[in-house]
Amino acid sequence: MAGSTLASATASPATQRPRVGPWQEAWRRFRKHRLAVVSGVVLLALILAVAIGPLLWAMPIDEIDFTARLQQPSWAHPLGTDDLGQDLLARILYGGRISLAVGFAAMAVAILVGVLVGSVAGMAGGAMDAALMWLTDLFLSLPQLPLLLLIIYLFRDTLTGLVGLEVGVFILIVAVIGGFRWMQVARLVRAQFLSLREKEFVEAARALGASRTRLVMRHILPNALGPVIVAASIDVAAAIIAESTLSFLGLGFPPDVPTWGRLLFDAKDNLDFAPHWAMFPGVAIFLTVLSINYIGDGLRDALDPRRIISA
Amino acid sequence: MSASTTDPLLSIRDLRVHFATDDGMVRAVDGVSIDVGRGETVCVVGESGCGKTVTAMTVLKLIAMPPGRIAGGQILWQGRDLVPLKSDAMRSIRAKEIAIVFQEPMTSLNPVYTVGEQIAEVVRQQEKLGRRAAMDRAIEMLRLVHIPNAQRRAHDYPHQFSGGMRQRVMIAMALSCNPKLLIADEPTTALDVTIQAQILDLLAEMKERLGMAVMLITHAMGVVAEVAQRVVVMYAGKVVEEAPVRELFANPRHPYTQGLIRSIPRIDLAATHHHRLEAIPGTVPSLLNPPVGCRFAARCRYVTDACRAAEPPLREVAPGHKMACIL
């Protein structure tokens, strides 16, 4: 650039400067968080593995072969076999689909409900706000695990009767896990709304004719999203753990559906002589949750609301 | 200038705005009448807390209700009263008929959208233009307010603009739907002095080009002298004096106005005389329990017993010159 004369004199500074929006800026900051980037790669690899892995490793997940019971990892069975001689790699890859799907779907439910409750409370104020926050506190104070067990016990049969066993259990589990995790999001969103709705740019938009819906959708919500995304990432991890817990307690999917929690449940009686059986699903859960949490950390740094708002 | 008496564009009549607080009812605006004629620039002056911003916000019904309440009076916009209008009807007046620019340009733009998108949004919503046409209008508006490289800058985010440039963007946004009246609420207060002058020039130029009326709210008499055609002086929720700008500066009648004018720094006097800048002693009285009689009495150098006994009415002392003082 130093050598150019006329061109650089007439060109405005804007032509050379890259255009940075808040989201590009957040991405730039996220990339600086090395652990988060590595975790992102790990998570992506895990997702790819469970998505296309079962196609490549075409071993059946439910073929019983008593001659191959409780085998240690080998070339034929890279992660060994369980007590029915079923291939663990295939079962973990397949189970990962369900565990991750439950994790993301439950997160989506939690975020949806949380954003809805939080934004209505934050926007309406008054009695509505008080009632919704009372509801939130109520949910927060409920003993979750016993209630989860009770709800699943009560509704599993009705729902499976309606939409079939696997879909029914999936919907039920996603609904109960999501239904017990929206409260933090609701509080977060409400707090964001309370501060954002007093911002001058919201007032300015209102002064120039923006309707209430538009104010919420275009001006308040996008600015409140940063912390919600962070909460969402952590919710995915929590939902995967919750699903594992339910499956481990035998209340998740039916026994022939190998989710990661279910695999652990099945493995627990054989820990002494087949530790690999419990170890691999455990590692899968551990890696997933750990990488999601690190991604959450990276997102927290990248989407720090103070930096975005004051920018 | 005579347009104001014959056919006012905006006619605020005996407006009363009350706010319910824990301590009681605050009468923030207490019987204010202001007319703005077509193409006229009216300045509303007064110190902080005298009700000028509340008056302006009430015109567009932007005050929070509750706790605020329009307790009386009319806001006639081209003869039609805005006070009973529902929020939907009010929305269609904002930006299209009456637009407003606020004091704080640094925070008045949404950080997550480009300035072009934000202007285009107002246009799309108020004039039902398509995405492309709205963006073209946005760029045209940025060009109009002298943003260099408007085409490119439209795609920049607010944090990439300086304070003065952001205020230009705000003005472009406010003018994007061709309002007949622009209310500017202390548009230069947050800016440094050279930028202030530029923004005032810009407002004057825009007014000239687009033929709109301007209601400028300020506490700076210097600004008033520069841009106003007519001046309304407010004190403690009331109008205390109103006059054409020359008349007001040449012949200020109300002691408060006189005090305001004396408190303008004068470079010519400072150089030749031992001239001390005068201040008006005291502060604006609480509007929770405003004093009986003239509200300025406690701070007035000419105060008499009569001042404390009854409130002096606004009376015409010369053609187009009204004031509320018994002297």
From TrEMBL, chain A:
Stretches the record annotates as Disordered: 1-20
| Keyword annotations | Cell membrane, Membrane, Transmembrane, Transmembrane helix, Transport
Q: List cellular component terms (GO).
A: plasma membrane
Q: Where in the cell is it found?
A: Cell membrane
Q: How does it sit in the membrane?
A: Multi-pass membrane protein
Transmembrane stretches in the record are 35-57, 98-120, 132-155, 161-180, 224-253, 273-296
Keyword Transmembrane helix listed? yes
- Mark out the compositionally biased spans (Low complexity): 1-15
Mind telling me which Pfam families this protein's record contains? BPD_transp_1, OppC_N
The Swiss-Prot or TrEMBL record describes its family as follows: Belongs to the binding-protein-dependent transport system permease family.
**Protein name as catalogued:** ABC transporter permease
* Species name: Neoroseomonas soli
TrEMBL record, chain B:
Q: Which residues form a coiled coil?
A: none
Keywords on record: ATP-binding, Cell membrane, Membrane, Nucleotide-binding, Transport
The alphabetized list of GO BP terms reads: peptide transport; transmembrane transport
Q: How is this protein situated with respect to the membrane?
A: Peripheral membrane protein
Q: Cellular component per GO?
A: plasma membrane
- Pfam families from the entry? ABC_tran (PF00005), oligo_HPY (PF08352)
User: Where is this gene product found?
Assistant: Cell inner membrane
Could you tell me which residue ranges the ABC transporter domain spans?
12-261
CDD domains documented for this protein? ABC_NikE_OppD_transporters
Query: Which interval of the chain is the signal sequence?
Result: none
GO MF term set: ATP binding; ATP hydrolysis activity
InterPro entries noted in UniProt: AAA+_ATPase (IPR003593), ABC_Ni/Peptide_Import (IPR050388), ABC_transporter-like_ATP-bd (IPR003439), ABC_transporter-like_CS (IPR017871), Oligopep_ABC_C (IPR013563), P-loop_NTPase (IPR027417)
PANTHER family in UniProt: DIPEPTIDE TRANSPORT ATP-BINDING PROTEIN DPPD, OLIGOPEPTIDE TRANSPORT ATP-BINDING PROTEIN APPD
Q: What family does this belong to?
A: Belongs to the ABC transporter superfamily.
- For this entry, the protein name equals ABC transporter ATP-binding protein
Give the originating organism.
Neoroseomonas soli
Q: What is the lineage of its organism?
A: Bacteria, Pseudomonadati, Pseudomonadota, Alphaproteobacteria, Acetobacterales
